[in-house]
Design goal:
With 291 residues, the chain is mostly helical. It has 11 helices and 2 strands, in the order ααααββααααααα. 46% of the residues are buried.
Length: 291
């Protein structure tokens, strides 16, 4: 295996991990409600930009990060309570438009409160690279992959081993039956928005030291997160993770072996192929009936 191939592999896994976190956020909200939350990309941007703003206000890094995540969670919960919940029972198209509007509101608010400039964040541990078989991966890239893996484990544990997580899964399987046994679907939807916002914020904070962030960066990340979720099967959390990694790898190898000019086109070509060849994704979409 050549060093060049490994270099592209590491780069693809790094960015794919961020797409996986965004895709997992889509999957959680969709499985709980049938809503495709197109504000997810703005949660990624908000987490990073809030960290930038808090650092600029004088907070130390390891205080700014949790505060930024909490801010993003609060915004996600407000979006559910004030925008999505009042539209309960509306058509899917209406709900999609509402989440797009929420995303634009977040983007505009960040532009006003902070600025239109491009920013970066310091690398965790001060940066540096690691040589693996002649290929180099940044220590920040290792943090991205490691923290993503940890988030996936924690979300999996929450969904499969806690009463609240099992209640959320019950709502995703059959909303009416869950209501009949005392589960409150609105509370589960609120929690799904909170978790998806946290995942987005973590992804934004992790990737910003490698790339850059600005008020309008969330749109493209959100679209690629949606592609990851659709590739794995909407509502299928493990599928969203695999879909994100696959998309990241395809982008990296396309940029490396063909041209970086086609990198962003990979996601759009992929989503067209998915909808034509396997509309339910590689692992099957999670059906969700809204009652």
């Amino acid at each position: 295996m050549s060093a060049q191939f490994l270099q592209f592999l590491f780069a693809g896994l790094t960015v794919g991990a961020i797409y996986a976190l965004a895709g997992l956020g889509y999957a959680l909200v969709y499985s709980a409600s049938g809503v495709i939350n197109f504000a997810q990309g703005q949660f990624v941007m908000l987490g990073a930009m809030a960290t930038v703003g808090l650092l600029g206000a004088g907070l130390p890094y390891f205080a700014a990060v949790p505060v930024a995540i909490i801010i993003t969670i609060v915004v996600g919960m407000l979006a559910e309570k004030l925008a999505v919940r009042p539209a309960h029972g509306s058509s899917i198209v209406t709900l999609i438009v509402i989440t797009l509007g929420v995303g634009e509101l977040i983007k505009g608010s960040v532009q006003v409160v902070l600025d239109r400039s491009t920013h970066t964040l310091p690398s965790i541990g001060g940066g540096g690279t690691v040589d693996i078989a002649g290929a180099f991966i940044s220590t920040q890239g290792l943090w991205v992959i490691g923290v993503t893996f940890l988030c996936v484990l924690l979300v999996g544990y929450f969904l499969n081993s806690t009463l609240t997580g099992k209640a959320m899964r019950a709502v995703s399987c059959n909303r009416l039956a869950a209501q009949l046994v005392g589960i409150k679907p609105d509370r589960m939807l609120l929690m799904s928005f909170a978790i998806s916002a946290a995942l987005g914020a973590i992804g934004g904070i992790l990737i910003t030291p490698i790339s850059f962030i600005s008020y309008d960066s969330g749109t493209m990340i959100g679209l690629k997160g949606f592609v990851a979720a659709a590739l794995g099967g909407l509502g299928n959390a493990p599928g969203a993770i695999v879909g994100g990694l696959v998309l990241g790898l395809l982008e990296s190898f396309t940029a490396g072996y063909i041209s970086s000019a086609y990198k962003d086109a990979v996601a759009f070509i992929l989503i067209i192929l998915v909808f034509f060849v396997t509309p339910n994704g590689l692992f099957g979409a999670k059906s969700s009936e809204r009652v």
